[in-house]
């Protein structure tokens, strides 16, 4: 900061001279810095996954075209994070006239007070330097927002103290938008903003003027306006007025992760599972995969309201609950090493039921029951990926011959392992999960329990709260399916 010019005279003689950068607009600044970032090959947005070939190229086009733009998407699609990431395309610092509420450009002031100050103080006019983080203003749109909040209001106290007429621009108390001058102004949930406020926005965007308390005021602000909205909000809580939509240069649609792997990378990044407590907590990959699959299945389920969407916060919160369930079990059993089990996903139901809205059929069924069915389906899908070619008939047969197994959720790892070890052929078929004879007991036990849950999900064995895992008697008249070479026959139970 000490090497930066401190007044207008020093600024004119520096690398920030008027000939070089004096009248460069904000949108041109963003454009030039983005082009430099593209040329260097640096990542454009940190922490954003799955948008590399869809959303991000469209945002790049909008910035290069110097457009105001809007991100349309369901909840939990990183819209706000993307807008905040635009700050990285700004200069590290820019000069502004000291004491100006709207950060006036020393070479091109739009504020009457700053113009007067430069006329009287000349090269001695003091300069401050704005960091990029101070050039981003964010507002959540709510129906109670007023034009005074967004644009400004006449301040009668200012008028009285200065002996000025109320129509004088020096009597204005500036709102959020003018204070974002030379920066990025973000409005979340735009349809919730009242129509008359939206009118004030598009006048500023296009004509650079607005009326405050009936007095016309010219405000040629240098600002990038960016918005977020849920597409369904056009016809639900509110709407975006047509003239404002017409003035938004680009409309960009966001989306949920397209693959489970993509979703898992987001969930792993955002969730808090690296606990620094009494012991180590491990969430096996296949358990994390089940959790992510639950979100994908919920987005396709007809009983879940697709218009509302299923946020990425569902698998994030569920994964954290699963880790907490394993952590709690380890502490209770005085163990230093906790491995999450697939059964822990049922403990995460409270983190799921508030994350989706249900249609009528789903309401009748109940959110808890829907969540349990989604968990079972997710386990079945993940189980198929790993064990479609593994012969688990000896495990099934053990149950058919009268074996049953019930393990309490809070059972210690040693008890868990000891009971699962009784089932012939179970511990010998865990290689698809990366578990072998040298793996630690908690890891082996968690993998073995996943196999049993997978067999139950495919209805090859049964499970109940009272008995745990067991097999029901086969109907005598049920025809047997021919067995494919190298494959175990598919078992069906009542």
Second rung of CATH, namely the architecture of the largest domain: 3-Layer(aba) Sandwich
| Proportion of beta-strand residues | 5-15%
- Specify the CATH homologous superfamily of the largest domain: P-loop containing nucleotide triphosphate hydrolases
Q: How would you write the strand order of the largest sheet?
A: 4-7-10-1-11
Note down, in words, how this protein is organized.
This protein has 494 residues and is α/β, with parallel strands linked by helices. It is built from 20 helices and 15 strands. The chain has helices at 8-12, 18-21, 26-40, 55-64, 79-85, 112-121, 147-150, 156-162, 176-179, 195-207, 242-247, 260-270, 285-300, 313-332, 344-347, 360-365, 367-387, 393-400, 413-420, 441-457; strands at 69-72, 93-97, 127-131, 136-140, 152-154, 172-174, 183-188, 209-212, 215-218, 223-229, 250-253, 280-282, 337-339, 462-464, 468-470. The protein has a five-stranded parallel β-sheet with strand order 4-7-10-1-11. α13 runs antiparallel to α14. The chain is elongated, with a radius of gyration of 31 Å. The relative contact order is 0.09.
């Amino acid at each position: 900061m000490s090497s930066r010019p401190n007044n207008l005279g020093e600024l004119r003689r520096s690398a920030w001279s008027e000939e070089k950068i004096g009248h460069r607009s904000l949108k041109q600044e963003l454009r030039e810095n983005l082009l430099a970032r593209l040329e260097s090959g640096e990542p454009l947005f940190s922490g954003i996954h799955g948008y590399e070939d869809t959303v991000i190229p469209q945002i790049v086009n909008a910035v290069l075209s110097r457009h105001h733009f809007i991100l349309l998407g369901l909840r939990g699609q990183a819209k706000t994070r993307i807008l905040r990431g635009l700050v990285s395309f700004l200069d590290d610092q820019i000069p502004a006239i000291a004491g100006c509420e709207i950060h006036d450009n020393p070479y091109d002031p739009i504020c009457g007070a700053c113009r007067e100050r430069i006329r009287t103080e000349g090269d001695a006019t003091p300069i401050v330097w704005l960091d990029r983080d101070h050039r981003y203003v964010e507002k959540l749109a709510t129906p109670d927002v007023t034009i005074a909040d967004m644009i400004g209001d006449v301040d009668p106290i200012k008028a009285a103290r200065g002996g000025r007429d109320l129509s004088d621009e020096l009597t204005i108390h500036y709102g959020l938008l003018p204070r974002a001058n030379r920066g990025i102004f973000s409005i979340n949930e735009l349809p919730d903003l009242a129509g008359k406020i939206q009118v004030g926005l598009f006048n500023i965007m296009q004509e650079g003027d607005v009326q405050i308390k009936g007095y016309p005021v010219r405000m040629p602000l240098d600002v990038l306006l960016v918005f977020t909205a849920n597409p369904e909000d056009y016809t639900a809580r509110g709407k975006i007025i047509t003239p404002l939509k017409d003035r938004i240069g680009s409309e960009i649609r966001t989306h949920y992760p397209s693959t489970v792997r993509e979703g898992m990378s987001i969930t792993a990044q955002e969730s808090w599972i690296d606990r620094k407590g009494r012991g180590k907590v491990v969430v096996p990959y296949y358990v994390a995969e089940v959790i992510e699959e639950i979100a994908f299945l919920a987005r396709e389920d007809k009983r879940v309201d697709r218009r509302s969407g299923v946020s990425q916060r569902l698998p994030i919160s569920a994964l954290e609950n699963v880790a907490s369930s394993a952590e709690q079990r380890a502490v209770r059993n005085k163990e230093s090493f906790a491995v999450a089990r697939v059964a822990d996903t049922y403990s995460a139901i409270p983190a799921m039921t508030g994350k989706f809205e249900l249609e009528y059929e789903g309401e009748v069924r109940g959110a808890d029951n829907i969540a349990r069915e989604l968990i079972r389906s997710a386990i079945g899908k993940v189980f198929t990926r790993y064990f479609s070619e593994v012969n688990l008939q000896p495990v099934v047969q053990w149950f058919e011959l009268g074996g049953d197994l019930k393990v309490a959720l809070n059972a210690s790892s040693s008890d868990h392992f000891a009971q699962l070890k009784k089932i012939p052929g179970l511990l010998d078929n865990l290689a698809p999960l990366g578990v072998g004879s040298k793996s630690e007991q908690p890891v082996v036990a968690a993998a073995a329990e996943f196999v049993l849950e997978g067999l139950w999900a495919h209805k090859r064995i049964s499970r109940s709260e009272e008995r745990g895992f067991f097999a029901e008697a086969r109907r005598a008249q049920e025809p047997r399916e021919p067995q494919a070479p190298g494959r175990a026959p598919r078992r069906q139970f009542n």
